[in-house]
UniProtKB/TrEMBL annotation:
Matches recorded under SUPFAM superfamilies: Cytochrome b5-like heme/steroid binding domain
Pfam families recorded: Cyt-b5 (PF00173)
Origin organism lineage: Eukaryota, Metazoa, Ecdysozoa, Arthropoda, Chelicerata
Protein family: Belongs to the cytochrome b5 family. MAPR subfamily.
Protein name from the UniProt record: Cytochrome b5 heme-binding domain-containing protein
The species this protein was found in: Larinioides sclopetarius
Record InterPro entries: Cyt_B5-like_heme/steroid-bd, Cyt_B5-like_heme/steroid_sf, MAPR/NEUFC/NENF-like
């Protein structure tokens, strides 16, 4: 074995030892040293470097996995009966409440949630339904929301966000929404699906409002109804005014919208070839009778 090989092996072993026993930046220091001496091209040293690099990646992956497991293992899993003992009373174990099976420590807001507080009826239980219905009777302070529609369930997302921001999340409630292992039940997954559906619909409606902002409108006994467009009509700020059109969407009442009437369609803003009609070719749009197609205002009914 040549002297270069011996040197390379020695340096490689030193690199391994230092990287194991010292800070991670020692690895970078030795790597730079090897580059400056040209030994980084030696096959023995390359193998040592590759080994250390893989070892570091495995350690990072293991740490990340351990953190997740640690987080899950420290999470409380309470039964309904156990949660009752966290109502903030004289002999209680603390001050907890649950919403959609998520348990929060609300001691920070004890003035509201302890016995005698304005929201004490939420403490020590999961009263998800009451957050939606506003029914704070004993019959209303329950966790069952299976008979409520998707639109009603949408507000739960806001309540969950509020508690996650304001209070400490400490665990889950075993029962309707989580099993004994802390995994979501079919009922919870179904509710989340409904909530996500509403969220997606709201997003779609918001995008449609940007595409077709509502018209300004007024009515008087003398003049009847008038609709018109501006750069801020419908509460949507934009760089164009548009022209009034009646938008027909299946399952909804027709409504007046302002439509961009120049340039490429919004569905393909990068189109090289277009009719310079903006979005006027949308199949759901109708012109108002007696109103010029290019007019920014229309009298839609007369007294």
């Amino acid at each position: 074995m040549g002297s270069n090989a011996v040197t390379a092996i020695s340096v490689g072993l030193c690199l391994v030892l230092v990287s194991v026993y010292f800070a991670s930046d020692s690895y970078l220091i030795f790597q730079n040293l090897l580059v400056s001496t040209g030994l980084n091209e030696n096959s023995y040293v390359k193998r040592a470097l590759n080994f250390l690099e893989l070892s570091e990646e495995n350690q990072d992956s293991t740490k990340s996995s351990n953190l997740k497991e640690s987080s899950k293992s420290t999470e409380l899993l309470l039964t309904y009966e156990e949660l009752k003992s966290y109502d903030g009373g004289p002999n209680s174990d603390g001050l907890y409440l649950a919403i959609l099976g998520e348990v929060f420590d609300v001691r920070k807001g004890a003035q509201h949630y302890k016995p005698g507080g304005g929201y004490s009826f939420f403490s020590g239980k999961d009263a998800t339904r009451a957050y939606i219905t506003g029914d704070f009777s004993e019959e209303g302070l329950i966790d069952d929301v299976s008979d409520l529609d998707s639109k009603s369930l949408a507000s739960l997302e806001d309540w969950l966000s509020f508690y996650k921001e304001e209070y400490e999340h400490v665990g889950k409630l075993i029962g309707r929404y989580y099993n004994k292992n802390g995994d979501p039940t079919k009922e919870l997954l179904s509710i989340r699906q409904k909530m996500n559906s509403v969220k997606e619909n709201k997003y779609t409606e918001a995008k449609n409002k940007e595409l077709f902002p509502p018209c300004n409108s007024e009515w008087s006994k003398e003049k009847g109804s008038k609709v018109w467009c501006t750069k801020k009509s419908g509460g949507v700020d934009r760089e164009w005014v548009g022209v009034p059109r009646e938008l027909h969407v299946e399952g909804k009442d027709p409504r007046c919208v302002c439509v961009k009437n120049f340039g490429p369609p919004s569905s393909d803003l990068n189109a090289q070839r277009h009719n310079n009609n903006g979005d006027l070719d949308h199949p759901g749009l109708r012109e108002y009778t007696g109103c010029l197609p290019s007019s920014e205002s229309c009298d839609v009914s007369h007294p």
